[in-house]
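User: Hey, my collaborator sent me this sequence without any context and asked if I could get a structure. I don't really work with proteins. Can you help?
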Amino acid sequence: MKLHLAILIAALSAASALGQTTMPTATTQAASYERYRVVSEPGEVVTTLTNGMTIIAKRVATPVVAVRGYVKTGGVYEGPWLGGGLSHLLEHLVAGGSSRNRTEAENRTILQEIGNNSNAYTTDDHTAYFINTTPQHFEKAVDLLTGWLLGAKITEDEYRREYQVVQRELEMGKGEPDRQFYMLAQSNRYLVSPARVPTIGFQPVIENLSRDDVYAYYQLAYQPQNIVMSVAGDMDPEQMVAIVARYVGDAPPGREFSQDIPAEPPVLTPRTVVATAPKLGQAKLSLAFPTVRLDHPDLYALDLLSTCLTNGESAILVRTLRDDLKLVSSIDSWSATPTYVEGSFSISSELDVDKIGEATKSILDGLERVKTEGVDADTLARAKTQMKVSRIRGNETAERIASTLAQDLMSTGDPHFTDRYLERIDKVTVDQIKAVASAYFVKDRLITTAMLPEESAPNGLPSAVDVLRQEAPTTNPVASDTVDEGKVVKSVLENGTVLLTKQIASSPVVSIRMYTTGGLTAEDVATNGLGNLTMRMLPRGTTTRSAREIASFFDRIGGEIATVSGSNTFSWQASCLKADLPKVMEVFADIVQNPVFDAKELAAMKIRQVAAIDSQDSDWTSQAFRYFKKQFYGPKNSPYQFTALGTKENLTAFDSAKVRQWYASKALTGPRVLAIYGDVSASDANALASKYFNGNGPAFEPRNQRTTLTPIVGVQKIPLERAIKLAGEMDRRADMPGESKPSVDVIRVDVQQSQQPLAGIVIGFESASVFGMSDTAAIDVGDTMASGSSFPTGYLHETLRGQGLVYVVHAMNSPGRSAEFPGSFIVYAGCDPKAVNEVTEQILLNIARLQGSDEDMQPGWIDRAKQLMIIDEAMDRQTAAQQAESAALNELYGLGYSFTDRFAERTNAVNADAVRSVAASRLSRCVVTISTPNPELVKVTAGERTFKSFPQVDLTPKGVTHDAGTP
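Assistant: No problem. I've predicted the 3D structure and written it out in structure-token form, which is a compact way to encode the shape of the chain:
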């Protein structure tokens, strides 16, 4: 950007010297394309060009710039192609595909150069494309994205490839019960409207589409007047508009794209639909009532009522159905109000099959009480605050701000509809809540949808009538002159807790994060699940506050509280607005230091935990990973063999005394790091932390340098001598890359039969990964070369997804907390059961490629990978919560809170030799696990694979991911 300005200034100077006419500025160039402006302010511009395209540009104080393009077409507007999922298929073809200006490979190279942080999705009524990058790459991002939207070629080869990808995506969706349940509920709600048809389409219809069908639809829908470009970043909006206009202003308008769709007739009688799914665990139940479109004045009261009913631990139906009556393990609600059809108010729950009838009655009874009594003033005020805070949280990043502005404009014509929406929410009264409940909660229009575990219907799909019955001061104080906004200030409290504070004036949300070592590494076979149960119990009551009082407090202020047992840590997390921080710190400290573990509350929590355990295998990924953890980590007696939920048998044995003893001995005895980030000064944060944590609880040893974490008793660890020997063997092998060909030794192949329609492959490499190990950067670069960073690319994605062999494939470094608890490097994939052998061998080949020559790795790939990682790391540090979590964990693990600040430096220092060395030493031995409905088809064998050469990997196949139906 500076280069362009320098050229322009030089040109202006030359013109002046010659007495020539002054060149037009970027702003005047943009103005030549503009028809009118809706917003024209120093920090924001919303303008419509002469060809009908709208451009939104917003200045946002962030290191990231977001470039987003929205096409007002989606599943409901496909007309004669309805059911073919054209909008979704087209999204796959347009994002990253060949265009009039560049080949697919050229587009892809530029995308890699600017970070490859790109995605696309399709919903019922729009398709979105975006690229997130840094300001210096803004123009390249605009060039790429507008080239896709307005100049896609959609070649026959591209069509055939992406057609296969979509087929695999459809097949993958069959193994996702949540997606299937949503589609079932939609088809029950809508009988005529195209909203009844899944955005992704139906497989038989898609199979009969041609490239010409898709291209014809593209020419109809992808016209300038049907597109909104929304950009946000720390740049002058006029400059951003000028750059976008330069790339799109000359595109001629096309024919108007019709958005007329059939109207949905009113619901006159109750409807009920039931389906089954294998290994579902608990049943899924939806109770819905027809309501209104987005432009109806009842929108605000309906949305607020949904928040009152289920948003937060103290919400009406959560409190009654889950906590008091114990009829459901989870319950949620939402008011869906599309622009194109009348919407629905839905209440969804997960519960035991035999409780469906009683739960249905209790939900409907609760709605009847709202009709007559409304909601109390405190509940209403709490819900309004929650919605306000949710809006604030949703606009902390450039991409979210750009998205909100665009979607508001498309749906209402007002880019700031959300702001006015909150003003109207604030004016909703209790009488209005009662009025909308009476108007829409009519039993004669109740739409009931259920999905039951297949095992609950041994004689086949049950009759709906049989199952569902219609009821109708700090120790080290910091001087004020050393405290600068934007800098981390570290101090140590009297009890040894390390305190990290950072004032972020742009963040109205304050994030509190506290961590100590523990999690799964504190558990053994007999205690697995105890950590998760214990931590989840913390907000369920203290010596001075009941569970309901705690939930009500956080709901009332729109705050959040979470207590978590992870793989390596126990954590306490809270967030709130700045004004609420003093009171939140008081309640937060009470939860940390004074939990009571009430027996009744514990019994209820155990029921919910059992329900979650029963549902573990309903999703193919969780089933595949659970099996992998058992097979890979089990023989090592590693705690990572466990899942946080534990087992039903263990849960039965855990009582209040056991939970209380566990918390005191495990969670409260380790080194602690507390981070407070947001718009609060270091002195204020120090004062609050000192007030509530100094002198309370056990004393802690400050961790000012990296030390070996204390081993946890109860799990057999790898002896230190063995760990050192293993590391030495790895280093010796890494020193001899020229003595052997790239190879991977498969130690064993473990297979389990599943009831999912697709196969899950998880391969664990004996990398002995540990947080902060010296070659972390090299293994992470290798990981990115193999499978991308936040968004998929790399050898694995380009070959397997590009050939239509997998639905998803990805690799990740999964470090352990210490040399005695080492982690692994994991590659996973989901595919057709018939493809497991080819997919597995392709994965092994492409991981072995990292041991190969520079030519094997392919020129340019390592530099692209490093750029991807650096840009993604910037994306992951935008919010106060992200920064607080990163700093606290780095400090806890002995790396220092600023460890991530040197991420780019460490990443850029990695070269091909470093990747080769780490691949030879850490990525050459593995265990293959496969979960498949057809184990007889698995022919993968144990043994060493040696590779003499590697096929070329083409960057042409798309690296962006795509989603259907999820904004």
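In plain terms: The longest strand covers residues 743-753. You can pass these tokens on to your collaborator as they are.
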